[in-house]
Amino acid sequence: MQVEISQKNAELESISNELDNVLVVNEQLKRYSSDEYKMEYIEQIARDHLDYSYADETVYYFVPK
Fold first, then answer.
1. Residue 21: what pLDDT?
2. What is the domain extent for residue 14?
3. Which of 9, 32, 45, 54 could form a disulfide with 41 if both were Cys (CB 3.0 to 4.6 A apart)?
4. Distance (Å, whole) CA 47 – CA 56
């Protein structure tokens, strides 16, 4: 019985962490849904997912050892 309780507690902790992450993303999306932040959201998508940058920028990638 104790093993099952321990497993359920670990599962609860995992789900709680996942919920926290989803809530953070949800708050970001709420912010970006307003008109004043739409360009910022588009820029973030272009930079993070499409690897775009401005013409005068130098992009550095840090690769761990």
1. 96
2. 2-48
3. 32
4. 14
Tokens 């973030």 belong to residue: 44
Which residues touch 60 (CB under 8 Å, ≥6 apart)? none
- Give the chain's domain count: 1
Domain presence at residue 55: no
pLDDT digits (tens, 9 = 90+) for 9-62: 999 999 999 999 999 999 988 888 888 888 888 888 898 888 888 889 888 888
Give the span between the Cα atoms of 25 and 45, in whole angstroms.
Answer: 14
Structural domain includes residue 65: no
Q: Any idea which residue has 């820029």 for tokens?
A: 43
Q: pTM here?
A: 0.54
44 inside domain: yes
